[in-house]
Design goal:
Order of helices and strands: HEHEHHEHEHEHEHEHEHEHEHEHH
Shape: globular
Structural class: alpha/beta
CATH class of the largest domain: Alpha Beta
Helix content: 40-55%
Number of strands: 11
Mean pLDDT: 91
Low-confidence stretches: 6-25
Radius of gyration: 23 Å
Number of helices: 14
Largest sheet: 6 strands, mixed
Number of domains: 2
CATH architecture of the largest domain: 3-Layer(aba) Sandwich
CATH topology of the largest domain: Rossmann fold
Strand content: 15-25%
Length: about 325
């Protein structure tokens, strides 16, 4: 009898330990590049949306990059890894080559570079929600804000220039023209900027670390301002620094879309294709607008842009 009780106690204890084991709780493992506010905001909205769509909270583990690198078993046992930021993606894509991987809070060019550099043999099991906005959305926002705009200036870098065909297609469908300059060893920043600003109504900033970085952004914005050419940036920080407008997606908006993509993966066991943000926000610099004689109504602009996108999606 005593032996039987000991056996039952052992089974109960084993069951409890199994329930408490982190490996049981991680169908999805989210790994953040750091503990910054944006990453926390994205993780929180991800959790809320995934749970709202039916994913059990105990099936989701949220780790810092340090916890992942320390060998937390929940990452190894999960069906889906979700990286937030470039540093997390760089580690996950190398150390977990066979697991499905969904990348968020990362620009398109950074995502493509990391995956290519990793030598991952099965890129089909990697997908991304880009941090960038689609060119069509940015051009539509410019047209709504500045209806007379026709010539778009762009300053390309060695990585961003690969997106040139996408922009050209978006411009052609809207009867707009491109004025461009490409920074290279043969063409320094100032000369390339001069080429991009030639005949341009607006300078559209396209993320590229070799072009837009802390040491260059002030000069680019100042030169554009002196040329009376407003700049559309790719983040609120650029608007604060002197860009006229920015169409961007917040970390919370990205988290919601990542949660929906995760829910779909768990239902179908198939990753969706790479996606641009569905939701967005618009920032504007009133001082720059006033000095350039431009009237901005950000709320109306956002409403009109959303309405336009809904109309375009109708069959």
């Amino acid at each position: 009898m005593a032996a039987l009780r000991l056996c039952l106690c052992a089974l109960v204890l084993a069951g409890l330990l199994g329930l408490l084991s982190p490996a049981w709780a991680a169908q999805v493992c989210v790994v953040s590049s750091d503990k910054g506010a944006a990453f926390q905001e994205a993780a929180d909205s991800f959790l809320q949306e995934a749970v709202r769509l039916g994913v059990a909270r105990q099936d989701i583990a949220v780790l810092s990059l340090a916890e992942y690198l320390d060998g937390d078993p929940r990452a190894a046992d999960s069906r889906l890894l979700v990286s937030l930021g470039t540093d997390a993606l760089r580690q996950l894509v190398v150390h977990n080559p066979k697991q499905a991987l969904l990348a968020g809070l990362i620009p398109r060019i950074a995502f493509e570079r990391v995956v290519q550099e990793s030598g991952r043999k099965s890129p089909a099991n990697v997908a991304a929600l880009y941090l960038d906005q689609p060119f069509g959305r940015q051009l539509d926002a410019l047209h709504l804000a500045l209806p007379t705009v026709r010539h778009i200036g762009v300053l390309w870098g060695p990585e961003s220039v690969i997106q040139q065909p996408l922009l050209v297609a978006a411009l052609q469908s809207r009867a707009m023209d491109l004025s461009e300059g490409q920074v290279s060893d043969k063409l320094p920043l100032i000369a390339a900027l001069r080429s991009a600003l030639h005949d341009a109504d607006v300078l559209l900033a396209v993320a590229d670390g070799a072009v837009f970085n802390p040491s260059t952004v002030s000069n680019i914005l100042l030169a554009s301002y002196h040329a009376k050419t407003p700049v559309m940036g790719f983040s609120p920080a650029y608007v604060k620094a002197g860009a006229l407008l920015s169409v961007h997606s917040t970390a919370a908006q990205a988290g919601v879309q990542l949660g929906a993509m995760t829910s779909r993966f768990l239902q179908t066991n198939s990753l969706p294709g790479n996606q641009y943000p569905l939701d967005f926000s618009i920032s504007g610099n009133d001082y720059v607008a006033h000095s350039l004689g431009i009237s901005l109504d950000l709320q109306a602009l956002s409403e009109h842009l959303r309405k336009l996108e809904k109309q375009e999606k109708r069959p």
